[in-house]
């Protein structure tokens, strides 16, 4: 799109300026959500939107709003966390990975932990599992990805390998997690009840939770074996047991940490570094996996790779 033409049109029509500015403000939100994957295109669209917003603000005689997100500034703690009537921290809110309270150009602000401060060990695979993963090709990695297969990330993937925002809704006796990615959700009972007897495997597993001081401890079993715990082949068995810990140390920050036990795949339990999320003030967007041709393309590529090794 020719920006000179756009600017000329804006100058001729105040109403069109306002309309385009509103479209761009919405577009900026969606653009930020895709920055990690399409920085070049996103930068062009963001520049156009910023230019139109500046012109719109000037014509409306208003000061241009300050958007701190592209600068990647970390949110302040924001005071103490709110609490529910029963005294527990209220985990409710829209939470973005990292420290900026939204998507940002700044890679450092998207980072959820500092490996120098809180190092995270690699998964302690059993020898046979390590050999299986080592034999995987880049194509195998793609064929195993939930996004390629239009499948849910599952647990703990809906936290651990999800770059999109989530929304938590806390009510008496339960926590609801809404994911922007593929609009997945789960409902977790927080009243300390036991697991269901012999639950069927599911992507999000059978989850129950209890409070340990100000930390919500979520215990998950019976997780569908099609899910992976990272993007590079960390498969799991039917014996995987996931313990998630959620806390809100301040108004603007949420901390997530997970321990994974899997006696068939791992030599010992693995615990993640504590990951930071920050409070955003945007609604989740609609995001569905549709018209996906990736699987067929990767299967074709895998077939060519296999034939080449014969």
Fold and architecture overview:
- With 310 residues, the chain is of the alpha+beta class.
- The chain has two domains: 3-67; 93-280, Lipocalin (Beta Barrel), CATH 2.40.128.20.
- It has eight helices and ten strands.
- It has helices at residues 3-12, 14-34, 39-60, 107-110, 127-134, 138-144, 157-160, 294-308, and strands spanning 93-97, 166-171, 174-179, 185-189, 206-212, 215-221, 241-250, 253-261, 270-271, 275-280.
- Strands 1, 2, 3, 4, 5, 6, 7, 8, 9 and 10 form a ten-stranded antiparallel β-sheet that branches.
- Strand 2 and strand 3 form a beta hairpin.
- Helix 1 (3-12) crosses helix 2 (14-34) and helix 2 packs antiparallel against helix 3 (39-60).
- The longest helix is centred in the N-terminal third of the chain and has 22 residues, at 39-60.
- It starts with a helix and ends with a helix.
Could you list some keywords that capture this structure?
Lipocalin; 10-stranded antiparallel β-sheet; 2 domains; single chain; disordered N terminus; 8 helices
Largest pleated sheet = 10 strands, antiparallel
CATH superfamily of the largest domain: Calycin beta-barrel core domain
> What percentage of the residues does DSSP assign to strands (E)?
15-25%
Approximate shape = globular
Whole-angstrom Rg: 22 Å
CATH fold label of the largest domain: Lipocalin
| Low-pLDDT segments | 1-29, 35-70
Instruction: Let me know the average pLDDT.
Output: 81
Helix coverage percent: 25-40%
Helix count equals: 8
